Amino acid sequence: MLDSFAQNAAVQEAVKTADEALGEDLSGLIHNGPAESLNLTINTQPALLTASVGMYNAWLAAGGVKPEVMAGHSLGEYSALTAAGVFPLEEAVKLVRFRAKVMQEAVPVGVGGMAAIIGLPDEAVFEVCREAASVGAVEAVNFNSPGQVVIAGLKAAVEKACELAKARGAKRALMLAVSAPFHSSLMKPASDALREKLAGVAMNEPAVDVVANIDVKVHRDVGEIREALASQAAGAVQWVKTVRYFKEIGVTHVIECGPGRVLAGLIKRTESGIEIRNVNSEESLQKVLEEINALA
């Protein structure tokens, strides 16, 4: 995911910083794999953070305009806060490595699960979760776009909720290949551990507004940021409300920095009238730079 940036100084500096902070060859893992190791959440989280922040730094280094407001989905909130100067990358990668560790430890592998419910309104998803709760804990945890909600909880309860969702007319109810029920109330031990960890992490007031996943608010007080991040581990990601907040405050253009283009698709399905660009390669960086500069 970083091969096209092999000659980009800003991206390579971010990778070097992450390697030194973690004391391991994260960059080698990103470049060479194996995929089984990279897909472990303790490696995926710092890798994605490093890639996203590196691409944002490359955007700025190339003369890209600074944003008026930022947000990130789940782990991406840490990338946004790093980009906003709340903590340096070397602290952020260690923090998300810890986050990954405690989230994985909160529920043993195979006990929990997550599933994407496609084609049902939110209230119907809430109802199937309430019905499936007779089997075990399950709840809506990611509101990604209208008609796309991710649920999480004990695996048997998630599977039961999928059956109920299909019976109610869901287009799809798909179990996800994840190692834990992220953002569910089962993550409370991870949330508590993060809260304690974050208390000892030095933070700065953000230089750019960052919208929090948990409550769709801009927090400038570092104490509030700490609490928002701790709560987020065991709370729902309110991405639909975040995109609608962007629209309400007059955002016209969004630039997604990071591997892939998942958020661009979610934004398009949530609100019309927002132009979206992706910076995920050296080629796309130059193209988006030209397009945005042409608007100035």
Characterize the structure shown.
- The chain has 296 residues and is an alpha/beta fold.
- The chain has 13 helices and eight strands.
- It has helices spanning 9-22, 26-32, 35-38, 41-61, 76-83, 89-106, 122-132, 155-167, 188-199, 222-232, 239-248, 262-270, 282-295, and strands at residues 69-70, 112-118, 138-145, 148-154, 172-175, 209-210, 253-257, 275-279.
- It is globular, with a radius of gyration of 19 Å.
- It starts with 8 loop residues before the first helix and ends with a helix.
Topology:
Blueprint: H1 9-22, H2 26-32, H3 35-38, H4 41-61, E1 69-70, H5 76-83, H6 89-106, E2 112-118, H7 122-132, E3 138-145, E4 148-154, H8 155-167, E5 172-175, H9 188-199, E6 209-210, H10 222-232, H11 239-248, E7 253-257, H12 262-270, E8 275-279, H13 282-295
Parallel strand pairs: 1-6, 7-8
Antiparallel strand pairs: 2-4, 2-5, 3-4
Helix pairs in contact: 1-4, 1-6, 4-5, 4-6, 6-9, 7-8, 9-10
